[in-house]
Amino acid sequence: MKNLLILTFCIASFTLGAQADDNPSSVTANATNRFVVTGMHCGGCAQGLTSELRHSKGVATVSVSLTNKLATVAFDTNQITSARLIKVIREAGFKATLAKP
Ligand SMILES: [Cu+2]
């Protein structure tokens, strides 16, 4: 009986997770990292990078500053890692390193 309760809880968690994938804004962030981004030249670059990050699984909120060359990303560490976020930034055509806290 106890096992059944645990199983039900797992299925409920999984369902919540699946909903979060469909609606990125409902991701619960448990970490925020800042990345130094090089290669952004205009507001279009910043906007493009913002949308690439925002559409990545596990990302809750994204804030990209062109003037400070910084991308601030709040994310769920169970779904995505800072290394993976750097890869997303690189795939969007920029270079990124983790900013010092
Ligand atoms: Cu640009």
Name its key features:
101 residues, four-stranded antiparallel beta sheet, single chain, disordered N terminus, alpha+beta
What does this entry look like structurally?
- The structure is a single chain.
- Strands 2-3-1-4 form a four-stranded antiparallel beta sheet.
- The relative contact order is 0.21.
- It contains three helices and four strands, in the order αβαββαβ.
- It is α+β, with helices and mostly antiparallel strands and 101 residues long.
- The chain has helices at residues 2-22, 43-54, 82-91, and strands at 31-38, 59-65, 70-75, 95-98.
- The protein has one domain (2-98): 2-Layer Sandwich (Alpha-Beta Plaits).
- A hairpin with a 4-residue loop joins strand 2 (59-65) and strand 3.
- The protein is globular.
- The model is unreliable at 2-24 (pLDDT under 50).
- Residues 41-42, 44-45 line the site of copper (II) ion.
List the helices and strands and how they pair.
Blueprint: H1 2-22, E1 31-38, H2 43-54, E2 59-65, E3 70-75, H3 82-91, E4 95-98
Antiparallel strand pairs: 1-3, 1-4, 2-3
The structure holds copper (II) ion.
SSE sequence, one letter per element: HEHEEHE
Question: What's the CATH first level?
Answer: Alpha Beta
Binned strand content: 15-25%
- What is the CATH architecture term? 2-Layer Sandwich
Low-confidence stretches: 2-24
* First and last CA, distance: 47 Å
Principal-axes geometry comes out as globular
Q: Helical element count? A: 3
CATH topology: Alpha-Beta Plaits
What Rg, in angstroms, do the CA atoms define?
Answer: 16 Å
Q: Overall pLDDT, averaged?
A: 83
What hetero molecules are in the model?
Answer: copper (II) ion
The total count of strands amounts to 4
